[in-house]
Specification:
four-stranded antiparallel β-sheet, six-stranded mixed β-sheet, 10 strands, alpha/beta, 9 helices, 24% strand, Rossmann fold, single chain, 261 residues
Amino acid sequence: MAILEVEHICKSFNHTEILKDISFSLEKGQVLSIIGSSGSGKTTLLRCLNFLEHPDRGVIRVNGETLLDTENPSTWQESSIRKKRLHFGLVFQSFNLFPQYTALENVMLAKELLAKEQPDYKKRKKEIHEEIRVHAQELLRQMGLENRMGNYPHQLSGGQCQRVAIARALALQPDILCFDEPTSALDPELTGEVLKVIRELADKNTTMIIVTHEMSFARDVASEVIFMDDGYILEQGDPHQVFEHPKEERTRQFLSHFTQG
């Protein structure tokens, strides 16, 4: 069974169609790279998957559970949205860390907020807090930030901030980790730091969707590639097929721009 099923997702803003009948599926442990020019709908698709935008039409299922069916209004209840978002961990291109919290506190925050809703929270407060802290420390160690846990975002490089953001996304143990152009705000050296972490996650069979302009990275790390153009999925296949033998002329034009650059 596919871990993620997306069927016929459409989305418009001010009568402009941004997503046009988007359908695909993702198996557990797969890495899906989504490529395409700016304005092709890639980020809007991720925002729809994370319930930051409401699709006009379509179905989203995770592990066989229907999280959204626009034909069924009961699947879009505000009270259930936060729970549905837990299936996805989103890493933004601009980090979106809370500046008033340390790296460790940023990673701990969401899990602590959820813990307060547990019936036994008051009784087990210290124990729960310690469990969350230990888990957050382990994630930051995995990101190579064991000596930066007490630093605030302004004391960290862009690459370090993005690695904190990845740890934060992993903290709630999502089914699918989503990246929205995670290196676009970084210089080449810091880009390498972040891509190394994502490669390591792929090696651990982490299920991921990665929107990126890093073509060589998309080709090397992905098990499946989608090329989006003007709101459509124009081409989809394994990396060798899409990058070496694209079927569509528009795909060839897009990729040739990066080859020449």
